Amino acid sequence: MSPVRFLVAPLAESDTKHLGAIAQLVEQRTENPCVPGSIPGGTTAKKSKTTQNPNFQRNWDFLFSPKTQSKIRLQTVEENLLETVIGLPANLFYGTGIPAAIAIFNKEKKGDNVLFIDASHEFENGKNQNRLSDADIEHIVSTYHAFADGKLLAGVAEEKYAYVATQKEIEKNDYNLNIPRYVDTYEEEAEIDLVAVQQEINALETELTKVQTKMKEYLKELGM
Fold first, then answer.
1. Residues 6 or more apart whose Cβ sits within 8 Å of residue 166
2. CA distance 177 to 188
3. What's the chain's Rg over C-alpha atoms?
């Protein structure tokens, strides 16, 4: 059995091209076949002809749900099986508009850190579905391989995109794997220039006064 496994949530059986492209690039660099994985509580979609392992559809809440999944998350982290968590854009897969997530489990991972990637903002808008470009997929895969090759240290790997968390960090977060807990995508709002705003308001009020004066003149000419 392959040491590298994927867990995808949610995943429509009829639309796996994005996952397939990512998996193929992973295979090319790791020389390990990647297969869809499973997690208890999922809804069986289809059994693989080669591995006899069922694929499962899951909501993204498996990353942070406090119910049964929390025990599974704890076990996969403590046993050092979880390697990477990837957040994908919304409206990427057919039949659902909610964001999808990929969890990669690797029995032969190097070290005990976990990589978190927030790829939810990198996509091309489509009429009915969004899509990942080749560059978007390569960004995900190259980041994953830099981590898998031991080139990324714990902490921020790429601003607003990737973070390498230690097991202690994950433990402090009660084994919550929600990506925003690790990848900070907060954008500071531009400071408001109150003086400039007031000047603009004054100019608009002056213009309004002129218009009102003109209107009164027109109405007077019309005898109103």
1. 112, 113, 154
2. 24
3. 25
Contacts of 26 (CB under 8 A, 6+ apart): 4, 32, 34, 104, 141, 144, 145
**pLDDT tens digits, one per residue of 25-44:** 555 544 444 444 433 333 33
Number of domains composing the chain: 2
pTM value is 0.67
Structure tokens of 25?
């690039």
Beta bridge partners of 117: 86, 162
Domain check: are 65 and 86 in the same one? yes
Q: Which domain holds residue 119?
A: 4-181
Q: What percent of the chain has pLDDT over 70?
A: 68
Place of tokens 């009915």: 128
Cα 1 to Cα 38: distance, rounded to the nearest angstrom: 14
Statement to judge: residues 105 and 204 lie in one domain: no
